[in-house]
Inverse folding.
């Protein structure tokens, strides 16, 4: 095969691939696009979520807040699928 024939064969293969890709793109059905940025999912009122927001607004002081520490522990347990830790017995129960 000489160079001229090889160039022609390459051009024919390139054109065939380009036509096939164009036809495939034209016949493809467009799926409706959903705009997730504007869709708001409202679930029921979640007191844990509200407490998380409160702790978020506290900023660095939340690290010393006992309620925020409890909320974070509960959030971690919920995320990891653990059951809540049992509460420690009080001094009246130990007697």
């Amino acid at each position: 095969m000489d160079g001229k024939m090889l160039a022609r064969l390459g051009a024919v293969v390139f054109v065939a691939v380009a036509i096939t890709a164009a036809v495939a793109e034209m016949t493809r059905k467009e799926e409706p696009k959903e705009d997730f940025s504007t869709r708001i999912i409202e679930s029921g009122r979640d007191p844990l979520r509200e407490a998380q927001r409160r702790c978020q607004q506290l900023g660095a002081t939340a690290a010393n807040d006992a309620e925020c520490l409890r909320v974070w522990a509960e959030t971690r347990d919920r995320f990891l699928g653990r059951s809540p830790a049992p509460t420690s017995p009080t001094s009246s129960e130990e007697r």
Summary: Confidence is low (pLDDT under 50) at residues 91-95. The first helix runs from residue 3 to 27.
